[in-house]
Write a structure and sequence with these properties.
By secondary structure, this protein is of the alpha/beta class. The chain folds into three domains: 151 residues, no CATH class; 99 residues, NAD(P)-binding Rossmann-like Domain (Rossmann fold), CATH 3.40.50.720; 186 residues, no CATH class. The chain is built from 17 helices and ten strands. The strands form four sheets. It has a four-stranded parallel sheet with strand order 2-1-3-4, sandwiched between helices. A two-stranded antiparallel ribbon has the order 5-6. Helix 4 crosses helix 5. The radius of gyration is 28 Å and the shape is flat. The two termini are 55 Å apart. The model has no long low-confidence stretch (mean pLDDT 81).
Length: 476
């Protein structure tokens, strides 16, 4: 039932997004070619095309738009996603889809005959982007409001009773409360250890009275969220209520084992639970790689003047030694690669000490190196690593193998950060956890990034890097 409700909501969102995009496209046509005000500003020098010509593009848009929205996570249920985050996700999706559409137009016009079939007004496309952004966000807001009104009125609401008021049960209740659009209402908990309300949700009785409580509060579904140590109670509870007219759902207690996220797989009918599945697989990985190549190549071009000036400064004020250094770092699945950096320390800085972390006022730094590190300019050559595929623009910062061997022994879940490709910048870095700061907090932010990855989150981190990533006090 839960999967069915989610699928219904996703199907409604897809249809709504396609309808909103179609309406925005046609409205953009009429505004561009039949609005006296717009025509006075932008005369239609090539004449006014028939509306049927613009209708021909709708099937292409109906396929492209949901695909891009999907890759931005707009058809996934996520607790804590704010309306602002959704707005920017829609904005990036509309811009990317429109860019792909414009690229397809130009490609057809250059390489194929009858190019007039794909000749559309760029002014109409610009108007459409604004209208589509408003239409998609507005229609989604109206859908949420309509669903919430139905839920508040008690229409088609499933009343949920949760067995277990521990960590797992509370998390389940919070999720239901965060996604009221699914039409579920938590009536309360049943639990042997708790009697007082938990997070505002009442405890209605002990596990032994599950049948009576379910009948009294007209529960449609019973979610059993007991810890593993209460397995015997779980079996007894299922036997107790199995003959009642209530759907029984068992939530496996994987929180103490699931290190990133759990995913259910099927092996010829045998359910298998993967405890540390990451979202960066398949199409998601390919989309991230395309973004790395495109933005990485453009960034290399933009940063090319620095590649001329910085080597000169290093040779002039940096003492003896090469301009460019390579170091062994660890990345995806524990593999190592050679990272590129501009030299910021004296030659053979670790000849006597071996690998050590840089400290504040580190005497090994050259005068130029101080400023290169301060503004992260020493890391510019890593754009080459990004384009070559050694690392990504966004991800956990790569560490040197000697440090990895130290940290994995004393920091739980440290190696999980290597489930994705390392990056030039990351969620931890833009939140101030870089350099000689708490490793535990850095791992916490890295794992959050891995679990919640999306192209939108990558774009958000890249934008924040421009504002927060340079001149940090821990950059030494």
């Amino acid at each position: 039932m839960l999967k069915f409700q989610v699928r219904k909501l996703v199907a409604a969102l897809v249809l709504l997004d396609v309808a909103a995009t179609g309406v925005a496209w046609i409205a953009a046509y009429y505004l561009r070619f039949h609005s006296a005000y717009v025509l006075s500003l932008l005369p239609a020098t090539k004449g006014i095309p028939p509306v049927s010509h613009y209708l021909l593009l709708l099937p292409f848009m109906a396929a492209l738009w949901p695909s891009v929205l999907y890759f931005h996570g707009l058809y996934q249920l996520r607790r804590g996603r704010s309306r602002i985050d959704e707005f920017f996700a829609v904005l990036f999706s509309v811009l990317l889809s429109s860019g792909l559409t414009l690229g397809a137009m130009l490609y057809v016009r250059v390489y194929y005959e009858r190019a007039e079939l794909w000749e559309y007004s760029r002014a109409a496309l610009a108007i459409f982007i604004v209208l589509d952004l408003v239409a998609i966000n507005g229609s989604r807001a109206l859908l949420r409001r309509a669903l919430q009104r139905r839920w508040a009125a008690g229409e088609n609401v499933k009343r949920v009773l949760i067995a277990g008021a521990g960590t797992l049960g509370r998390r389940l209740a919070e999720t239901f409360l965060a996604h009221r659009e699914l039409g579920y209402r938590v009536v309360g908990f049943i639990d042997d250890r708790h009697t007082e309300p938990v997070d505002g949700v009442p405890v209605l009785g002990p596990l032994g009275q599950a049948m009576e409580v379910a009948a009294q509060y007209r529960a449609d579904q019973l979610y059993i969220a007991l810890p593993l140590e209460e397995h015997a109670g779980l079996v007894q509870l299922i036997r107790h209520v199995s003959n009642e007219c209530v759907d029984i759902k068992v939530v496996p207690d994987l929180l103490q084992y699931a290190t990133i996220r759990a995913d259910l797989e099927d092996l010829d009918g045998i359910p298998i639970i993967s405890l540390n599945e990451v979202p960066l697989r398949g199409w998601s990985s390919m989309a991230k790689r395309v973004m790395d190549i495109v933005i990485g190549a453009v960034s290399l071009l933009v940063a090319s003047p620095f590649f001329l000036v910085i080597p000169f400064l290093i040779k002039w004020k940096g003492g003896k030694g090469p301009v460019l250094l390579t170091q062994e770092r660890m990345t995806l699945d524990g593999k190592t690669f050679q990272i590129y950096k501009f030299r910021t320390m004296i030659e053979e800085a670790e000849a006597e000490t071996g690998p050590v972390w840089a400290q504040a006022e580190d005497p090994r730094r050259t005068p130029v190196g101080v400023w290169l590190r301060r503004f992260n300019l020493d890391e510019l050559p890593q754009l080459l690593n990004v384009v070559l595929g050694d690392m990504s623009l966004v991800g956990p910062r790569p560490e040197r193998p000697p440090f990895v061997r130290q940290f994995k022994e004393r920091i739980p879940q440290y190696m999980l950060r290597h489930r994705v490709k390392s990056g030039m910048t990351g969620w931890a870095q833009v939140n101030g956890w870089r350099g000689n700061t708490s490793l535990e907090k850095r791992i916490e932010y890295d794992l959050y990034y891995i679990e919640n990855w999306s192209l939108l989150l990558d774009m958000k981190i890249l934008i924040l890097t421009l504002f927060r990533g340079f001149g940090q006090k821990h950059a030494y």
